[in-house]
Write a structure and sequence with these properties.
By secondary structure, the protein is mostly helical. The chain has two domains: 12-219, no CATH class; 300-434, no CATH class. Helices cover 64% and strands 1% of the residues. It has helices spanning 18-21, 26-31, 37-52, 55-78, 86-116, 147-151, 153-169, 177-184, 198-205, 214-240, 255-286, 304-307, 313-327, 334-349, 353-382, 385-392, 399-421, 430-434, and strands spanning 132-134, 143-145. The chain starts with 17 loop residues before the first helix and ends in a 5-residue tail after the last helix.
Length: 439
């Protein structure tokens, strides 16, 4: 068995080894008959789970997957067919809305308890195979058990909810049990994403063989090497450059060092997640599947809204489609919708005050950004004297405004991501020290 006990959060073993272990299965996919592709995906995922996790954890994952299928089956059985006239259509729409509400409640009846409780009471609290993270090194006093994340329950939950809701909406009209299992258990995206959509997966599964080419294998190897390089840089920065005392004893380091590290540590988080995604995308290319990209140069963003179109793209799109838009989107209660969306995202990550402080900071930041954009759009459309004057001095629409927008956006996002990472103190010591609240 593999030893998951970590001396610090960002050491190389923090990457779930199941991804790189999948390399052993890649040649088998090249030889797999087309009609067996679903079985190959399911069995390879089960094999990796049995290698990496003890039986009790595998049973937990199996129970979660089967429960998700039960909800999907109920939604599929009760979803009304398209109505031939407007009157029946109204009834169908009402029925489907009720089913969507049922899907949300039913899925969360299982997944919320699993996500907010680090280990179910019938599971051991500590196992030699479990990824144990000692956050005392960088601020916290508690030990955190990340078995839920490593087991894939977090991503399994939202993928199951996506399928159930889209079945209720009628955007998924046909789904078999084997298709569902192959999608939910897709081994490369099980534990850390990216979050695939079933419709994209179903399209690819019928043509995966055509994409197994020498060119795609080469592209896949290149992405794997890029991911390993990013992870290696992250390990070097975190182990040799970062000063982890910024969370607990920032006064011993000085304000300049604290500020520099608050900017550095979110970058290591980006390298960690994006490196994993590079490896997953590369392995997917090698077996004929194109996984969605999860990052698109987020540190080039000049607004918070743009940042969320570049950072963890598939996760942001999921929360946008399944929480923000159903709540009303931009039509009504916009700030409350932002707050609920990021609050759900925080809950999905875990029960830490720093996560909820981060959620509030993102809701406030993106709402202010939206209001600011609307204000200056109105100024531009009306050609006001203020806009004309600022335009003349390149303070609007020029290179100087671009630099100022970029600097403000990146500084805000780096500081709020650092707040997210401070699970032990929720930023009160390091940010309090920077603001001069104590010497």
């Amino acid at each position: 068995m593999f030893e998951y006990r970590l001396d610090n959060f960002y050491s190389l073993p923090a990457i779930p080894p199941g991804v790189l272990l999948f390399l052993a299965f890649v040649p088998l996919f090249w030889l797999t008959p087309v009609r067996w592709i679903r079985a190959a995906l399911i069995l390879s995922s089960i094999a990796l789970a049995l290698i990496c996790w003890p039986p009790s954890y595998c049973l937990t994952l199996a129970a979660a997957v089967m429960y998700g299928w039960l909800v999907v089956w109920v939604c599929r059985s009760l979803t009304a067919p398209p109505a031939p006239d407007a009157t029946a259509g109204s009834a169908t729409g009402s029925t489907n809305q009720s089913l969507i509400a049922f899907a949300w409640i039913a899925v969360h009846a299982w997944y919320v308890p699993a996500l907010i409780w680090p280990a179910l009471r019938w599971l051991p609290y500590e196992l030699p195979y479990e990824p144990v993270i000692d956050v005392a090194k960088f601020g916290g006093e508690a030990r955190i058990y990340y078995w839920v994340a490593w087991l894939g329950l977090a991503y399994t939950g939202i993928r199951s909810l996506h399928v159930a809701v889209d079945v209720c909406r009628g955007t998924i009209t046909r789904i078999r049990f084997t298709d569902y299992l192959a999608f939910i258990l897709f081994p490369l995206a099980l534990r850390m994403g990216p979050i695939m959509r079933y419709q994209d997966f179903a399209t690819q599964i019928d043509s995966w063989r055509d994409r197994i080419t020498l060119r795609n294998v080469g592209i896949g190897l290149g992405r794997i090497l890029l991911g390993l390089a990013r992870i290696g840089l992250m390990v070097y920065l975190f182990d040799n450059v970062a000063q982890h005392g910024i969370w607990k004893t920032p006064e011993q380091l000085g304000r300049l060092v604290v500020f520099a590290n608050l900017a550095l540590l979110p970058f290591t988080l980006y390298l960690w997640i994006s490196g994993y995604i590079d490896i997953a995308v590369g392995l997917g290319r090698m077996i004929g599947f194109v996984l969605p990209e999860n990052f698109r140069y987020p540190f080039r963003s000049t607004s918070i809204r743009e940042f969320w179109k570049r950072w963890h793209i598939t996760m942001g799109a999921w929360f946008f489609d399944y929480i923000y838009i159903p709540l009303g989107g931009n039509r009504r209660h916009v700030f409350l919708n932002y707050l609920a969306t990021f609050g759900y995202c925080a809950l999905w990550h875990g029960l830490f005050r720093s996560y909820y402080a981060w959620a509030i900071s993102q809701a406030v930041g993106i709402y202010v950004n939206r209001s600011w954009h609307q204000y200056w759009t109105d100024q531009r459309d009306r050609h006001t004297p203020l806009y004309t004057t600022l335009r003349r001095y390149r303070l609007v629409g020029g290179w100087l405004s671009f630099i100022l927008s970029w600097a403000l956006t990146i500084t805000y996002q780096l500081m709020t991501i650092a707040l997210f990472m401070d699970e032990g103190y929720s930023g009160r010591r390091c940010f309090g020290y920077l603001l001069g609240l104590y010497p």
